[in-house]
Amino acid sequence: MTATTHRRLLTEIPGPASKALQQRRAATVAAGVSSVLPVYITAADGGLLTDADGNTLIDLGSGIAVTNVGHGVPAVVDRVREQASAFTHTCFMATPYEGYVEVCEALAELTPGSFDKRSALFSTGAEAVENTVKIARAATGRQAVVVFDHAYHGRTNLTMALTAKSMPYKHGFGPFAPEVYRVPGSYPFRDAPGLTGEQAAAAAIDRIEKQLGADAVAAVVIEPIQGEGGFIAPAPGFLPALSRWCSDNGVVFVADEVQTGFCRTGDWFACEDEGVMPDLVATAKGIAGGLPLAAVTGRAELLDAVHHGGLGGTYGGNPLACAAALGAIETMRTRELATAARGIGETVLPRLRALAAETGVIGDVRGRGAMLAAEFCTPGTTEPDAELTKRVAAACHAQGVVVLTCGTDGNVVRLLPPLTLPPDLLEEGLSVLEQAVRTEAAR
Ligand SMILES: Cc1ncc(COP(=O)(O)O)c(CNCCCC(=O)O)c1O
Description:
By secondary structure, the chain is α/β, with parallel strands linked by helices.
């Protein structure tokens, strides 16, 4: 079913059919599973979601940075349909198939670095990040893993240990995996004024060297732009300095590009912005147009240091997901979606900056490409305003615009539109957001 080409509100959001489904959910879905909008989707097309009451919503979340190519893309859907009619699963560890190999070939070509590469495929971002740590430990013989303030890497035991924020991700789920150490990163809006990326990196490196010693460290794991922690782009120079230190000290530099990857930030991968070539890169989300696929790609000598049979999983590189990925990657190439992402940023960032100047309640506007954010603060301060953030997001939802929030302090509205979102829908969604900020800031 194809949605219309504009936002259509037939009922309040959520409408009666969604409310009825919400009641059914309460009797059968674990309360620990949350949803931003209690709206049940029946169709999606391009950047529009159709709910059970026939409302169409503008999707500025892409299912948390997954449907970068948009919804219902023929190159994805047709390949999945064809693959499904051939076979849905054989388990690559039992009897392999070409699609897995093709995805690995594409990853070798597309990820930063011209060195000899290998990949291993999984199903979720957390699995990929977990496996970067396994690979780094196997390759170096070391155990310690260094992560950063505001980091998010997943919800498994090890990735919870890597993740910074306790509630809701870690609270009550310990103990967590050992040998994980956290250091400050680079948060320009909150760091000391004028602190350069190199200085922030030097401070982190000093902490690592003093508290651990470089020769104890297997890997440094970092998001090139921190996602759930608040869409925090580090100061220029931070990532290159960190990467240089890693290569000088035999430490594996792991880029967690689960949220930043696949054209989201205006490059195929966010590390490209400063020419950083990670030893290992974890990818997921945007890779396969909505099908569950994740990967570790990196230096062949690192991945091949793992003993035979040391990497795997039943569904890793599922054939439907691989077919979807090949369709999504084809779409990113033919529609030049990295360029499209930059265009979205060029449209949105000035509007958010003007809104910040007009209302005074947005302390920082930041991001790259189509990974954009507004951090809400008490005017004139860096004091987080999570309540206002919630109200702004709720006001957008009530108007049929899906926006997501994030941030260690819950005070960041993030924009993750599909990179194929038509300009008129972007404009409509942005106008709703602007009006929501004006109205809620005035309350
Ligand atoms: C950088 C980065 N690394 C790893 C992950 C984990 O990816 P999975 O596919 O959710 O396991 C993410 C997932 N981010 C969305 C989390 C949603 C939620 O669970 O509340 C990420 O952003």
